[in-house]
Structure formats: C-alpha cells, structure tokens
Amino acid sequence: MGNAYQQRLSQQMPSDKVEDVSRGLRWVFQNIERYGGDTSQMLLMGQSAGAHLASMLLLEHALLEAKHLTKGSKEEADNWSVKDLKGFLGISGPYHLQKLGPHLASRGLYPGIMTHMTGGDLLGCSPEALLQQDDWKAFGARAADLLPPIHLFHGDRDKAVPVWSSVHFAGALKDAGAKQAVLDVRKGMTHTYPVVEGPMKRHDPQVEIILPMLFGPGAEKRLETTPTLPPMANPRIIDAAGVVSPF
User: Fold this and answer.
1) How far apart are CA 239 and CA 197, in angstroms?
2) Bridge partners of 46?
3) What is the pLDDT, as a whole number, of residue 73?
4) Which candidate in 61, 96, 154, 191 is catalytic?
5) What is the pTM of this model?
6) What is the CATH number of the domain that holds 71?
7) Are 1 and 136 in contact (CB under 8 A)?
8) What InterPro entries does the entry give (predicted)?
9) 27 lies in a domain?
10) How confident is the model at residue 76, as a pLDDT?
C-alpha cells in the first residue's frame, strides 16, 4: 500500500482523491504561516466521505514515512509528516467499504457504486482493511508510533453509515498499535447532526471536540464563555427534519 501511494504521488495523478487531500495538506503546511497560521496547531478532520479520505491519507502516509525511516532515507515523505499534526478527527466515516455494501443494499441503494468509485479495489481503499495488509504487518509498528491522537465521532442514529463503522475502525486501530485512538459515540445523533441539525440549533459537537484537541485542558472554558445564540429555526422543525432525513 505504501509503495502504491508513493507511486501515485510520483505520477501526479490528480484524479486520485487521497492524493488530492495530500497535496492540499502539503500546501497548507508550506503556506499557513504566510496567513498567520501555526504549523504546530494543525488538525486533520473530515466528515463522512471526507473522514474516509482523510483516514486513508493518514494511514498511508504514516506507512510511507515508516518505510523511509526503516530504510534510513533522509528524503522526506511528501514534505510533511503525520506526527506534526495535532490530531485527526473523523466524523461519521465509512472506514470499511466492503462491509458497508450489505447495509447500502438493505436500504435499497446500489452497493456497486463503490466498486466503480474504487476501480474494484474495495479493500485497498478501506482504512480498516489497510491495517490488515502485509505492508502494515511489516512496518505498522513504526507507522503507529507516528500517528497523532485520533478521535472517531459517530452518532448511534446514523442511517447512512452505521455506527459500527467507527466502532470497528477504533478497535482495529488499537489492535494495530495506535496508542491514542478515542471512540466517541453520541446517542440520538444522526449522520448529518454534527454538520446540519446541530449547528442550526447552535450546538456544534465538532467545535466541542476540536478545541480541547488543539488547546488542551481548559479549552472547554472558551465554550462556556461563548455567548449563546438563538437557534436558526424552530428546534421542533429541526428535530422533525432530522427524523425524516434519509441520513
């Protein structure tokens, strides 16, 4: 997997979404200080498909770096390191595409769409499955040491991506040696609550997670002292929308 990732990078294949994310992250590392940012305060996060792509990048890049270190290479892996990230936040992510197929079929959806999207390589494009590959078995211990703190967030009422997706991935990460992997399952939350219903009700669980990851203990006080704003719509209407939503 690491060799394939390195090859795709060298070929500059813009259609590969994981490499798109890598190039974007590399650009931010190289340019954030020009805009007043701090490279030591960078957090990688994604929701749904974004969580899938970001987690693929995180694991593939850690594996690539581990291979460089094992071989004693002085060349940096794509000019940035996963160990420099403050953390990774994955929200409602599909982390094993092959396992997700039956769920999609049970909801009347066409699971073959994922086969088309991945070129038929469902396992090769699944973060959880990557941890079972021969490359990870060979270099995974060193790769796991490079990983930043990982926080996997999922609502237990998620209809689009079942909560077991994050549960299984969190377990696989710990079994693979990730020392800072946290599973955060929220009762009553749907797939879209963290990005739609919650913010509309002036409740943003993403910010509640991000601030402590970035600023450490005491960050919660920033939330407590933030002025409370009224909901963007009638809370009952927002709740009703969450119930009828297919997600």
Assistant:
1) 7
2) 90
3) 62
4) 191
5) 0.88
6) 3.40.50
7) yes
8) AB_hydrolase_fold, BD-FAE-like_dom, GDXG_lipolytic_enzyme
9) no
10) 58
The predicted pLDDT at position 228 comes to 85
Query: Does residue 67 fall inside a structural domain?
Result: yes
Residue 47 β-bridge partners: 91
The Cα–Cα gap between 175 and 169 comes to 10
- Total domains in the chain come to 1
Print pLDDT tens along the chain (247 aa). 444 545 544 433 333 788 889 999 999 999 999 999 999 999 999 999 999 999 999 999 999 999 988 877 656 566 789 999 999 999 999 999 999 999 999 988 888 888 888 888 899 899 999 999 999 999 999 999 999 999 999 999 999 999 999 999 999 999 999 999 999 999 999 999 999 999 999 999 999 999 999 888 888 787 788 888 899 999 999 989 888 888 8
Angstrom distance (rounded) from CA 56 to CA 228: 37
Look at residue 29 and tell me if it is in a domain: no
Is 22 considered catalytic here?
no
User: Which is the catalytic residue, given 126, 158, 165, 166?
Assistant: 158
State the sign of the Cα–Cα–Cα–Cα dihedral 131, 132, 136, 140.
positive
* Angle subtended by helix axes 17-31 and 2-11, to nearest 10: 70
Which range of residues forms the domain containing residue 150? 2-12+42-244
Is 158 one of the catalytic residues?
A: yes
The answer to whether 167 and 90 have CB atoms below 8 angstroms apart is no
Residue 132 · residue 61 · CB < 8 Å: no
The active-site residue out of 48, 55, 92, 165 is 48
Alpha helices in the chain (DSSP H): 2-11, 17-31, 49-70, 97-106, 112-117, 127-130, 134-146, 164-175, 197-200, 205-215, 220-224, 235-244
21, part of any domain: no
